[in-house]
Design brief:
With 343 residues, chain A is an alpha+beta fold. Chain A is 35% helix and 24% strand. In chain A, strand 12 and strand 13 form a beta hairpin. In chain A, helix 4 (172-189) crosses helix 5 (201-208). The model of chain A is unreliable at 336-343 (pLDDT under 50). Chains A and B meet through helix 1, strand 2, strand 3, strand 4 and strand 5 of A and helix 1, strand 2, strand 3, strand 4 and strand 5 of B. Strand 2 (38-40) of chain A pairs antiparallel with strand 3 of chain B.
Chain lengths: 343, 343
């Protein structure tokens, strides 16, 4: 593969090269890349906006993350936040900082993933910034969405008696990470050894190519269910549940046996001799939706396989609890990834 | 001064600590920090949005940049882009990546500058991301503004015969940078020597604490002048003029003698034996507004000291030219800062 140096393009040349084929898809995208700022018109809807920064060596490891997957995932983690507000993502701004270690071809690969995610979710890339970094790859994305004021769902509005629901399954991304970290270690010690990841496609795929739950967002709309509170699961179920309880001023009970964990995840967890429930509670990076609904809405969602009811909301004084399969009750504690603990 | 480690707070604790006193000022700021995303309602106006990434060692040097100034400037460079669209800035999202080299107190200083700029411009901080970095300080800001569709001014709409205007004065920030780089070199070679910057307050101030031209934006509105094209000067006048000419499909003539250069800048440039005109054309980081107006609007702005008319728009075939004091005509070429050239 040929290698083109970034300096051969220059900043403006590179931006043009990477964005020249963009065709704006949303009526609300009035003006895209190429001016001081982009212009959006949400025609009476409210604008929902979120931003995330991803730094090489902290949030991703390029030794086992293909650049195309990284581009895809960088977009997905932001869109997930938009869906978590019960809004529809419409636009994206992408800034990258890159060292001279990266060729134009490498950045193109990254952008391929970005564009794939944008296309899948009907989102327009409308702006950004490209700069050099002294070390490593830095990504900052701002995602924008729209919703009517009535549609928007916050974290702070769960009420006693509401049912706690969760999409998809939990814990897989964390187990995928354990595998990749183990293989990296083996590779560094004995570069000749072939990685043994054949049976772990599911958990590794969940880490490297997560989904943002557009389908759940659309399903809720179709079923005319507006959750009473919602957020996405990026730091682990425990941490997110505590966020909802704290901002809503409520407590909760969840049931271990109700936690959605895939067979692949269970089998993979046992290989590491770790508890699949612990992975589901504290693993993080699942990008599933955690939401609460009124009991009256239960029947509208009950037959839908990709949504699990895992517990219910209680009064604040009752705390946040998990009832185990063995019949014990424990307090839920946040042990999600905390980048600063390694600090 | 005491030093609190970031890990003592944790990510959520730190965000809460830094944002707990925010009081939203704009009616359009529906929901701020603390959920998956922020919510904005521009009540029928269009949303203008821009983003910038600033990386330690590439865009700023902490050996001579106080953190409070850095916070202030990081906001200003983004607001400048909003004013350059002839829009009013309303909200801001701020993401930072910080290594354990920084204490909570250091980050607080940075935020002081951020809040000072927000207050000055009536802007709400409504979201962001805080993460650890392996090395150095990384800042990514997204600024949001609003305008009616008729108010918004692009780069691509300058027309033959329009007058080219520029706010404030040019070149000072670049000369300020030369002084600070020189003093840094002297300091590194002989740490005992006191810096000799006494007479250079103006040019250094222009680098470390630039303004975003809210006043010019308001003045244009007051005088009912809507520029035919506009952008802010971040990479140097030459580079920006070429952007306007290229996107508008026009040419231009500017006059060296009309370029606004302060006496302080001239004197400072002579100390480095460099041409003040070259600094004005290629220096960058002035964050002044460059705009074109219809000839009919000339009288409305003519007596305003902070706006200079520096030339006029021609047909594309005539190219982009500068007429020197000596009577020569040269092509304008972009020699603005290009971070990738150093690669």
């Amino acid at each position: 593969m040929s290698r083109t140096e970034i300096k051969d393009y220059g900043e403006f040349g590179l931006i043009h090269h990477l964005t020249k084929n963009i065709e704006l898809q949303n009526a609300s995208s009035i003006l895209g890349v190429g001016d001081d700022a982009a212009v959006i018109d949400h025609f009476g809807k409210q604008t929902v906006i979120t931003t995330d920064m991803l730094i090489e060596g902290v949030h991703f490891d390029l030794s086992y993350t293909p650049l195309k997957h990284l581009g895809y995932k960088s977009v997905i983690v932001n869109l997930s936040d938009i869906y978590a507000m019960n809004a529809t993502p419409t636009q994206l701004l992408l800034s990258i900082g890159i060292s001279s270690r990266f060729s134009v071809e490498a950045i193109e690969e990254f952008y391929e993933g970005v564009y794939a995610a944008c296309e899948e979710h009907g989102v327009d890339l409308i702006g950004g910034d490209t700069s050099s970094s002294q070390k490593g790859f830095i990504i900052s994305i701002t995602a924008i969405g729209e919703a009517t004021p009535e549609q928007i769902v916050k974290r702070s509005t769960a009420q006693k008696g509401d049912l706690i629901c969760c999409s998809g399954d939990l814990g897989a991304a964390y187990i995928g990470l354990l595998f990749l970290e183990r293989e990296k270690k083996i590779y560094l010690e004995s570069p000749g050894v072939q990685p043994d990841l054949e049976n772990e496609a599911y958990v590794i795929g969940r880490l490297l190519k997560p989904s943002a739950r557009k389908d759940i967002h659309e399903l809720l709309e179709e079923k005319k269910v507006i959750p009473t509170s919602m957020m996405d699961i990026s730091d682990g179920l425990s941490s997110e549940l505590l966020h909802i309880c704290e901002s809503s001023g409520v407590g909760c009970v969840i049931y271990e046996e109700k936690l959605p964990i895939s067979e692949d995840s269970r089998n993979a967890a046992y290989k590491f001799e770790i508890d699949p429930t612990a992975c589901a509670l504290s693993g993080g990076e699942d990008y599933e939706l955690l939401f609460t609904i009124k009991q009256d809405d239960y029947e509208k969602l009950t037959l839908i396989e990709k949504i699990s009811v895992i517990g219910y909301i209680t009064e604040a004084e009752e705390g946040a609890k998990i009832k185990t399969k063995g019949g014990n009750t424990y307090n839920i504690t946040a042990q999600g990834w905390n980048a600063f603990k390694e600090g």
